[in-house]
Design brief:
The protein is of the alpha+beta class. The longest helix has 65 residues, at 5-69. The model is unreliable at 145-155 and 251-257 (pLDDT under 50). It has a four-stranded antiparallel β-sheet, sandwiched between helices. The protein is elongated, with a radius of gyration of 36 Å. A hairpin with a 4-residue loop joins strand 2 and strand 3 (166-172). It is built from eight helices and four strands, in the order H-H-E-H-H-H-E-E-H-H-E-H. The protein folds into two domains: 1-69; 79-250, 2-Layer Sandwich (Alpha-Beta Plaits), CATH 3.30.70.270.
């Protein structure tokens, strides 16, 4: 039986049509996969860019925060940040904790800059030395608290610059190895160590001593109801007495007593 010519053509072309359709589908799938890979790559690059941007922004914020809370010359805390942190520690303190505020003043500091015809490089050098000494002193005080840190209590000492030639230290006074030491004895011990640390870098600086340069230190223990401001004011009043004693003893200021 003879089949119509059109039917025979359709039967012959059907496999070709199927193959073409399959090839087209494969091409479409391949194109889709390439498109997906390109999109994934784009999203990955965008994510990396965003992460880098966030890291840069975080670093910038940290730098801005540091500049806002630290003195740009010495690296010590600014007055506002210092007092804020000290107040927080006083509010969180336990009954057995002993805190002290020490005020440090550089006597005849102006004479250093006057000697160099108004240039402040020499005075800045002195301020940096004092700042580094105070940071080391408070860092060493922290290192003595490993036994307290083991019990989960946050311990720290902090130092700040008030601007000009006045500095302050707020510290928790531990009894170290002798539990019988009174708070007054602990304050005296820390003050002595602080004075020794402050005087050492200047022992060979005769050019400073000839102008009556000196460092005065006074400290006050925290009393019930104290704030950082009341502690500082009490220590500052004591500092005036210390400076007067230094002046009367030598007719001029001296490095440290």
């Amino acid at each position: 039986m003879n089949r119509p010519q059109g039917e025979t053509y359709k039967q012959k072309s059907a496999p070709k049509t199927a193959l073409l359709a399959l090839a087209g589908l494969s091409l479409a799938l391949g194109f889709g996969r390439r498109k997906a890979r390109q999109e994934n790559s784009r999203l990955r690059d965008e994510l990396l860019h965003n992460n880098r941007a966030m890291m840069t922004l975080r670093q910038k914020n940290e730098e801005l925060e540091y500049k806002a809370t630290h003195d740009n010359l010495t690296g010590l805390l600014t007055k506002h940040t210092f007092m804020e942190k000290a107040d927080r520690r006083l509010q969180e303190r336990h009954p057995e904790q002993v805190f002290a505020m020490l005020v440090i003043d550089l006597d005849n500091f102006k004479a250093i800059n006057d000697k160099h015809a108004g240039r402040h490089a020499a005075g800045d050098e002195v301020l940096k030395i004092v700042g580094e000494t105070l940071k080391n002193a408070t860092r060493q005080e922290d290192d003595q608290r490993t036994d307290l840190l083991a019990h989960g209590r946050r311990q720290d000492a902090q130092s700040g610059r008030w601007g000009g030639d006045e500095f302050a230290v707020f510290v928790e006074l531990t009894s170290r190895h002798d539990e019988s030491l009174s708070p007054e004895a602990r304050l005296k011990s820390f003050k002595t160590r602080l004075e020794e640390g402050l005087s050492k870098p200047f022992e060979t600086r005769g050019d400073l001593m000839e102008h009556g340069f000196g460092i005065s230190v006074a400290g006050s223990l925290a009393q019930p109801g104290d704030t950082a401001e009341t502690m500082f004011n009490r220590a500052d009043q004591l500092l005036g007495t210390v400076k007067e004693e230094h002046h009367q003893a030598n007719g001029n200021y001296r490095l440290l007593k």
